[in-house]
Structure formats: C-alpha cells, structure tokens
C-alpha cells in the first residue's frame, strides 16, 4: 500500500518519540530502583531500549521504513532509496519526535518538561565510540536489509542492546536521540556542549559503513528503498 509523505513523516515522528521516551523514561525508572547500582541501572535501560526498538521497527517499518534516525535517513538518500526532497521532512520529524519524547518521559515521572543535562560525555574515547557504534548499526542495517530483511528489527535491537555495553559512550548512534537526551538532566542525559562531537562521529561512522557495504554488496543502491523495512511512497 502506498503511503503519502505526511503519513510517513508522522510515523517517523511517532516512532522516534516512543524510542526517546523509552530511553529517557527507562533510565529514570532504572536509576530510581537500582539503589545506586549503576551497572544494574544501565542493564535495565539497555533491555528496555533494545526491546522497544524491535517493536517500533515492526510497527512503523511498513509505513515509513522506520528509520527513526537522521543518519539512517541521510544514508538512505545517499544511496537513492529516499528522494533528497523528502529527506528534510523525515529528519525534521525525527528531531521533533525525539524532543517531544523526552518531554513525555519527563511528564510521566513528574520532572520539568526540559532540563539541560549536566552528564559529561566527552573526550576522544567517547567520540570514537560513537563512530564505532554508528558504523556497526549501519552495517547491521545495510547487511540485513539487503540479505535478510525480515531480520532487521531483531538485528538492530540486538545490536543496540550489545553496543550499550561494548562502547564507552553507551551507543547513542542517533543524532535525534542525542539532541533529545541533551534536554534531559537524567541518567540518560548528555551535556549540550558534547552533542556536536557525538553527531559528527555518528555521521562519519554511518558514511564509512555505507561506503563499505556499497563495495561488499554491489547492488546496494538498487535495493536501498527497502531500508530499514520495505515501504512505498505515493
């Protein structure tokens, strides 16, 4: 079934809203219940995020492709899967959805709608971690969407769950999520001053993975419209 651009944009907005609400909300809940055990809080935050990502990709994949991430959208456009004229609509919907998602999470836990984070996430290792995290995420997306498309929701959710733990940055791997988390002075937050470094690394990581898979899978552009899940436009 064909989907109009407004419908696809709303799907991206709603999916990103729920993704960020999950990240921030589960972080708040985990911190409150973990009694100071940071590892336990991170584990709870990780499990909730990975599970929600699987569900959200299944839910919105057939409508918009369930990018839920500006770097995925930009790389899809780069590979001619999404028209460049539609890319700003997707990215704007994702950014706005992320911000609203943080606000929704704050309301659910009785916090101020917006509170700029003081959680420092800076330095070479953390920025490099975002490059690695996003490189890996785009590799999973390109590889699975080309060869095992039905596995994308599970693979993306599993990868993010793992990357929370093997990267020093806890794998943001998403500019919309990164910006939204800078507006949340909670367990999941990041200082606004640290955001540009993270986003720059995410873009570079996504581009590097896309170039690798353009070589590994020569027909990558021909099938790019199927990222993340198959969807059509009117």
Quickly describe the structure.
The chain has helices at 5-33, 38-64, 70-78, 87-108, 124-147, 152-166, 175-181, 195-216. With 234 residues, it is mostly helical.
Tell me about this structure:
Helix 1 (5-33) packs across helix 7, helix 3 packs antiparallel against helix 4 (87-108) and helix 5 runs antiparallel to helix 6 (152-166). The model has no long low-confidence stretch (mean pLDDT 93). The chain is an all-alpha fold and 234 residues long. The protein has eight helices and no strands. 53% of the residues are buried. It is globular, with a radius of gyration of 17 Å. The chain has helices spanning 5-33, 38-64, 70-78, 87-108, 124-147, 152-166, 175-181, 195-216.
Key features of this structure:
234 residues, mainly alpha, 0% strand
Outline: globular
Q: Give me the strand/helix succession.
A: HHHHHHHH
The assigned structural class equals mainly alpha
Portion of residues in beta strands equals under 5%
Number of helices: 8
Helix content: 55-70%
Largest sheet: none
Oligomer: single chain
Please state the average pLDDT score.
93
Distance between the termini: 9 Å
Please provide the count of β strands: 0
Poorly predicted residue ranges: none
Rg, nearest Å: 17 Å
């Amino acid at each position: 079934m064909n989907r109009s651009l407004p419908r696809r944009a709303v799907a991206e907005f709603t999916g990103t809203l729920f993704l960020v609400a999950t990240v921030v909300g589960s972080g708040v809940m985990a911190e409150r219940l973990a009694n100071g055990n940071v590892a336990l809080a991170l584990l709870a935050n990780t499990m909730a995020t990975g599970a929600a990502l699987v569900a959200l990709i299944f839910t919105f994949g057939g409508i918009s492709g369930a990018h839920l991430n500006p770097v995925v959208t930009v790389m899809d456009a780069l590979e001619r899967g999404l028209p460049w004229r539609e890319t700003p609509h997707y990215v704007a919907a994702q950014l706005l959805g992320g911000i609203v998602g943080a606000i929704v999470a704050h309301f659910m836990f009785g916090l101020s709608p917006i509170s700029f984070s003081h959680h420092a996430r800076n330095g070479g290792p953390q920025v490099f971690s975002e490059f690695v995290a996003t490189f890996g995420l785009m590799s999973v997306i390109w590889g699975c969407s080309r060869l095992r498309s039905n596995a994308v929701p599970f693979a993306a959710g599993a990868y993010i769950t793992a990357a929370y733990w093997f990267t020093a940055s806890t794998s943001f791997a998403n500019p919309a999520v990164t910006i939204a988390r800078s507006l949340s002075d909670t367990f999941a937050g990041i200082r606004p001053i640290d955001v540009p470094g993270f986003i720059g690394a995410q873009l570079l990581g996504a581009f590097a993975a896309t170039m690798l898979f353009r070589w590994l899978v020569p027909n990558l552009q021909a099938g790019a419209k199927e990222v993340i899940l198959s969807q059509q436009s009117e």
